[in-house]
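User: Hi! Is it possible to get a structure for several chains at once, not just one? Here's what I have:
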Amino acid sequence: MRALLILLVTAPLLAQEAGPTRTDWPHYGGTQLSWRYSALNQINTGNVKNLAPAWIFQTGDYAENLHSTPIVVNGVMYLITARAQVFALDAASGRMIWQYRYQTPRTGIAGSQSDFIQNRGVAVGNGKVFFGTKDNFLVALDQKTGRESWRVSVDDPRQCGCNITAAPLIVKDKIIIGGNGGDQAHRGYLTAFYTATGRFAWRWYVVPGPGEKGNETWKGDSWRFGGGSPWLTGSFDSDLNLVYWGTGNAAADFYDGDRVVSGADESRDVNLYTASVVALDADTGKLRWYFQEIPNDVWDFDSAYEVLLMDRQVRGQMRKILVHMNKSGLTFVLDRATGEYLGSFNVAEVSNWIKGVSQDGKLTGRYEPELGETRFICPSAAGAKSWNSMTYSPRTGLIYTPTNEICTEITPNNNKPNEGRNYMNGDFPMKLPPNRTTYSHVDAWDPVAGKRAWSIPYKFVLLSSMLATAGDLVFTGDPEGNFFALDARNGNRLWSFQTGAGHRGSVISYSVNGRQYVATTSGFHQTVVGGAMVRLFPDESFRQGSTLVVFALPEGTK
Amino acid sequence: MKCIFILFFVPALALAQDPNVLKQGQDVFNKSCATGYCHGASGVGGGAPRIAARGFDQAYIANTITRGIPNTGMQAFAGTLSQTELNGVVAYVARLNGIVSPASSAAVPAQTASGPVLSAEAARGRQLFSDAVRSFGRCSTCHEVNGIGIPVAAPMGSIPENVAALRALATPRVSTATVSGETMPILMLSNRTQSVLFYDLTATPPVLRTEVPAAIRLREGSDWRHSSVIGSYNDQELSSILEYLRSN
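Assistant: Yes, the chains can be modeled jointly so their relative placement is included. Here is the combined structure:
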């Protein structure tokens, strides 16, 4: 009985301990629970008005954006640019310690949309700095010197039409990397390599092959080019030894006639394991459970986004849960040990793609693109949220997320696949929804209650990741270049700074010698989603750039 | 014998009759290679090494220009120059190295497959060569042909006559390294005083590794065999692949 009591009391506390970052910012998602929450509180609601730049780093990268999440370990910051220059910087002063330039890779396939010039971050651990490249190499550098240690080709971009833009995830002795390519005729996968040698460990295909369970959910040999690419970064629960990842949309994106078995029940298990959250054994990559959020995704609402792992009271019982949003804005709460559906809520205000979600988590009242027609559907493939991450504060129990209200006019086609070439099968220009004057909002949600605590509107779109801190602050940036702090309790805007270029990246916090810093990337992306937004607001200037701006309280202030 | 004679001599003849190839190569060189911090006019050197009168052979020149040299400023030009420009600049640099009649077609095959119409079997072979379903068990994990695949291995010289010959393929370029007490088959790329660059062939895909010379012990020869990495294909499939390779 006593043992049980201790178990009940300490288990949630232990989980809490693993969630926040402290001195360092060790992983893409802060910690591997992906909260993007810092336990530092030197900068707080009372003094944030004094926050000022401490140092600025211009990467010199001539590319048009800076997306990546910096990593900070023991006072050293590791930063990668869109063109895969990697810098090690003194995190207190910005002094450069080393620099590595990835050789300009060959281009991918023209017209395949596979030539993204962007990189979302490095992973640091086991004495190395890891990153993926546009030409699908996974590269490991020596953490101390920046010298290349190894590199391995994950795929040939000229064949697969795929690229790596995500930060890899280090799990014990392995490094796990996904890729994009879900909009090409390509079959997505996660691949794990050993950090020490670069040798292959395992690969898990999102789309099962012949003889594997789930392959029967694909029509004919459509599984070969079924998409599903897990193009962002997963999470890791060391207690359960499970890796969590969101998978991408089924391909073709907007036309299902060639991939869905006729007469299939659209309420579950269509085109497995696309548009799903999956839990894989961290050592073997074997599938432990899955939850398909969007069976037969015909909207490009892929479920590739970040997976937040938290322990919360659900209906009176402490549960190990995960919170996961896909592009539709529909956000799922699942038991992360079993995949059991616990609830969902929809952050988008303008939404007509479904009528709702049933008690057991199934989509109802689907409004699908139709061959031979043009349909106005909300949200858009740009996402009620884009790939940028939300944040979770255990102090308030709320998640904070940027929500965009953008629609699209989808006109599908039934083109046949050609390996590695575009396989979206539709035109989908972005459209502003009628009768609105603001097109995004920062929201605070209680994920368990499914209730919105507050919402702050913004005129254009919000495409930058968020940070919550124990100072009860929420930080993010907008495309106009404003980097700002909100009160986590009520959304009041407490501080703002113009960084000179639009925000499409990430914000982190860390401390060196007892001084807390908040760092943000600055530099908008004028292609893909960012480009669509530029075209929606042609009178605005969402400026490009590649700069890191680091803030702290002036020394001596309290 | 006659066949080989024609193979090597005809391009050279073609070049002799077409001084435009050299002229174009020189133009490309002046624009792309002589500028900035690179090789200087006539390849006499600048921020980058001298490349005139170095005794380079044409295959080396073609390989370096098309593929570049990893971890240096020497980029791969296969993606940026057209096939005609590549042929020209290879011929021009060959001339700078004293090759009087450089072959005009020594550059590595172009990026896109626009070669002869393939037989049904060769077409099947092409599909098998880079078959994504085989993951890292496909040929293109280590071989680049017609712009598809990772050029771990050098471009293929001769194509094995049949499947038995393919299975028996000797791999004299593979040697053995011991790194941190572990012995492994490797393909050496460069062995310099500062660093050793090699492919670790222990598993597929091969890993391109960089070590300091002090950390690595080398010896000639290896137990590694090409037959150990083609296990995803049966004889019939290998036969189709050979047919494809012969069709190039």
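Chain A touches chain B at residues 103-104, 106-107, 147-153, 156, 158-160, 186-187, 197-200, 203, 209, 224, 419 (CB under 8 Å). Residues 2-18 of chain A form the longest helix (17 residues).

User: Great, thank you!
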